[in-house]
Design goal:
By secondary structure, this protein is of the alpha+beta class. The chain has one domain. About 40% of the residues lie in helices and about 30% in strands. The protein is built from three helices and eight strands, in the order αβββββαβββα. The radius of gyration is 21 Å and the shape is globular.
Length: about 180
């Protein structure tokens, strides 16, 4: 009896190690492709949020990537930045573009989100993201459940206020971090 338990444990351990090895191997093969696809998503987001952008320059400060955006005449027109935080279910990653003075938000794109389909996942829809366009960000953005009464407010998605508030919080923290990194 003891021998069969020993062999069972040994076989299960061996199978687990082999599976773990193959998962790590597949991840290492896919890692470059995943990073490449994320860079493509960010480039697409930049050109979607800032159509005047002709050139993107990546700047790394304290381990964070800041995307400096330039126009046809090579003038700095804004910055792009990725920020992430906890949503209702999992991490939400938001990419946003601001003007060069970091006073206006040109817009946001959701890079990664696994929020509840039909509810929190609606943060990916245009009606929600469009509320962030041309917002004055000299003070923090606020999320409200009902009609907006101030210029710095975003109306939450009905029945998905946690996801809505999470996006607003992520953007606010990202703007603050960007200002700190740039010394503004």
């Amino acid at each position: 009896m003891r021998k069969s338990k020993f062999w069972s444990v040994l076989v299960l351990t061996l199978i687990s190690c082999i599976c773990g090895f193959f998962l790590a191997w597949v991840f290492s093969l896919a890692k470059d492709k995943i990073e490449e696809n994320q860079k493509k998503s960010i480039k697409r987001a930049v050109y979607n949020l800032c159509p005047d952008c002709e050139r993107i320059e990546e700047k790394t400060i304290q381990g964070k990537i800041i995307y400096c955006l330039y126009d046809k005449k090579n003038n700095l027109i804004g910055y792009g930045f990725c920020s992430e935080g906890q949503g209702y279910q999992e991490k939400i990653e938001v990419f946003f573009v601001v003007d060069k003075d970091i006073k206006k938000l040109k817009g946001i794109e959701i890079i990664e989100s696994k929020e509840t389909p039909g509810l929190g996942a609606r943060i990916n829809e245009g009606f929600f993201k469009n509320q962030f366009k041309e917002l004055d960000i000299t003070s923090s953005i606020k999320c409200v459940k009902h009609k907006k009464s101030e210029k710095n407010q975003i109306q939450a998605i009905t029945s998905a206020t946690i996801s809505s508030k999470a996006v607003v919080s992520i953007v606010n923290k990202g703007i603050k971090k960007l200002k700190t990194l740039l010394g503004k």
